[in-house]
Amino acid sequence: MSRYRRNLLKSRIFYFAFFIVISFIVLGFRLYWVQIIKYDDYCTEALKQRGEETNVYPDRGVIYDKNFIPLTNRDKIKTVFVFKDDIENNKNVEDFVLKYGDIDKEKLSKFLKSSNKIMSVPLSSSVSQKDIPKEVFILDKTLRYNEEGILSHVIGYVKESENKGESGIEKVFDDILKKEDSEDVYFELDGKRNVISGAGYAVNKSQDSGRPSSVKLTVDYHIQKIVENVMDDYKVNGAVIVTEVSTGDIVAMASRPNFNQNNIDTYLNKGNMEFFNKAVQVSYPPGSLFKIVVLLAGLQEDMNLVNKEFYCRGYEQINDLIIKCSKEEGHGKINLKNAFAQSCNSVFIQIGERIGAKKIIEMAKKLGFGEKINIGLVEEIKGNLPEGRELIGPAIGNISIGQGTIEVTPLQIANMITIVANNGVKKSLSIVDEIVTEDGYPVKKFNREDDVRIIEQKYCEIVRDYLNEVVISGTAKKANLEDIGGAGGKTGSAQAILNKQPTIHGWFAGYFPRENPKYTVTILVEEGHSGSSSAVPIFEKIVRRIQEINR
């Protein structure tokens, strides 16, 4: 054999051996990739083909507060997962579920009659591993809503069977919050599609955390919690709104009575307005809070009102209509500042008669009454302002003190007091900040209007001076906040009809601290009798607690 042929043979053997070695390396790497690196993924995919799926994480994006504290998808609970066949065929499994699961015999019987193959029920007490039957799985399940019900009326709730937002932010941003993939658990089935007891399971995690699927609100979780705790401490029904003066951000909004978003069916036939967000969805007579509107309209018409001396005899008569003052025997001679601080009806009816109903209603519209504020919630209503013949004759009496057909939402009052706190500059109030990814990366800011001056500063400075006097010596003097910078505001007591019965609601709307206000707080207490006795103490408590946490 020639040297050339020997070299050719050696070369071929070498290349063949090299090819074999490379092939084994590639095959080995492929086996390592399939059996080690991608083992969990392929197991999950296999279980998807032949397994039974159930949810362990909500099929919706997160709703965050302004500091990216999650308001949904935050609480995990230990949950029992068990198969219907095992409950029916194994008494030990049934006994375990009834003993350790948060379920009674009636609910268990209802499940057994359903078409579901797998039941999930919260674990109600701790259990030792050795006491868990092999047919039972205990896993962490993430709840959509926490049991505290924080911000429930703003967040809203979902119709679980359709994964569809029914109210609040859940409804407004339903298309954004819906997720195509989520974290699910798959239990293994046999060839006949029956669950294999004690067989394996796999958890499939969402892979699309970069998609715009979440919403960031302007709400501050810590302030929201303070507001709700104070409302519950005082056991009141109504609404509270806190706004940040410099931005117009709504940092807290609460309504009572509250409801549990995890158990909607409980409230369907109660009729206690649990589902109503009373901050935006229900309108009330504003009572003496409307005197802010009358005062601004009066100052705009005649600045000399501040120097005028009035006389209150305890009532005003317009044709056949007699309207009593808050002080039955009358205030006697009184100037405008003290009349405002003491909430004198007579003086403001006299101002109303002087300037006319039309100019008062024009000022009310300028301040946002009679229209939606549009903060990002579909439930918001317009309220009502009188028009046409409702402005003629003795109607001016009720208009001047915020009664009659005038109805406003707490949100509209919050908007007005925020304008005054900003010395006449209207901020675009909002409760939505932006759309974000589930990881919190910004995608799109919520549309807000530019700041606009709607009231001259000189008028607002007078009104603020008068609001300060209300808290210093007037109807809100019980709000003793001088040690933390003081406050300004206005009380209101509004005659209304609730559940077909006459009642009086209590109002307070104010700001703090007195100089360079940081926050406004608007409070409505249903059946509160007077703003001084029912709403002012709540204002003081909320302000002090916000101050304590240095927000």
Task: Describe the 3D structure.
This protein starts with a helix and ends with a helix. The model is unreliable at 46-51 and 191-195 (pLDDT under 50). It is α+β, with helices and mostly antiparallel strands and 551 residues long. The strands form 8 sheets. It has a 5-stranded antiparallel beta sheet, sandwiched between helices. A 4-stranded mixed beta sheet has the order 2-10-18-19. Strand 6 and strand 7 (164-165) form a beta hairpin. Helix content is 34%, strand content 22%.
Order of adjacent strands in the largest pleated sheet: 12-11-23-22-21
Number of helices: 18
- What Rg, in angstroms, do the CA atoms define? 33 Å
The overall strand count is: 23
| Low-pLDDT windows of residues | 46-51, 191-195
Distance between the termini: 94 Å
What spatial form do the alpha-carbon principal axes imply?
elongated
Helix content: 25-40%
Overall pLDDT metric: 88
Main sheet?
Answer: 5 strands, antiparallel
Which structural class is indicated by helix and strand composition? alpha+beta
Report the portion of residues in β strands: 15-25%
Question: What's the short story on this structure?
Answer:
The protein has 551 residues and is α+β, with helices and mostly antiparallel strands.
